[in-house]
Amino acid sequence: MKNIQKYMKNINLIIGLLVIVGFLIVMITSFFYTPHDVNSMNIPQKLRSPSSDYLFGTDEFGRDIFSRIMKGTQTAFAVGLLTVFIGTIFGILIGGIAGYVGGWIDEIFMRMMDALMAFPGIILALMLVAVFGPGIVNTAIALGIIAIPAIARITRSGFVQHRDNEYVLAAKLIGVKPYSIMFRHILPNISSQIIVAATVTFATAMLAEAALSYLGLGVQPPNPSWGRMLKDSQAYLVGAPWYTYAPGGSITVLVLGLYMLSNTLRDFMDPRSKA
């Protein structure tokens, strides 16, 4: 109880939650309402500075930047969630089997993960997106594949630590099936490490999606993407700096909030911090 009260006063936790909840509210709202049509062009109103009509100003086509930022949250969260889902599911399966079974299966799986980790993340993402093609789903698949090795290694380490514990040996003696031991007995005991890794993966995926969209290989126009907006705005950095501030600030604030939350989760779920 004291530990929970201590973390409720943690400034990182409070800021992280406020940021994430705030963006979630914006995302949910964007499904039903935006101040202006996100793709409606209004050339006479192009590059207008922020005002009561256009809170973040307008872009080079006269589109409302605030409305496009709102819609862009859908892209950011969709890619983040799909990446975490793919990376976590396959990472747990590969790491769990490797750690529990061991032997040559462990060697094969871990060498495969080493091979994936040997490539710089953004280079591998560029290659995969070039193969799959641009778009939200394909971008998430590419980033999910990149996320698998880190989660697989964390899962494997946890399974190796727990596979010889007494509760596992007892379960084997009474005839519990291996898959049940793995996913009903061992996995819950290492879920805290996986949750923290998934939170970091979520933030990393958002950054990577923005980078790919900036390079023109992520989400394609006219769908709003913060990375694409950042690329389009750089030509107007001097004359219309608000165009850059909106997507750049959104990326920075959301990723910072996710990292602050992940750091707090790591401390909260670390048994040594409860001593």
From TrEMBL:
Gene3D superfamilies: MetI-like. It holds the Pfam family BPD_transp_1. It comes from the Bacteria. The keyword rRNA-binding does not apply. It is a multi-pass membrane protein. Keywords: Cell membrane, Membrane, Transmembrane, Transmembrane helix, Transport. It is found in: Cell membrane. Residues 73-262 form the ABC transmembrane type-1 domain. InterPro entries: BP-dependent_transpt_permease (IPR050366), MetI-like (IPR000515), MetI-like_sf (IPR035906). The chain crosses the membrane at residues 12-33, 76-101, 113-130, 136-154, 194-217, 242-262. Its main location: membrane. Belongs to the binding-protein-dependent transport system permease family. This is ABC transporter permease.
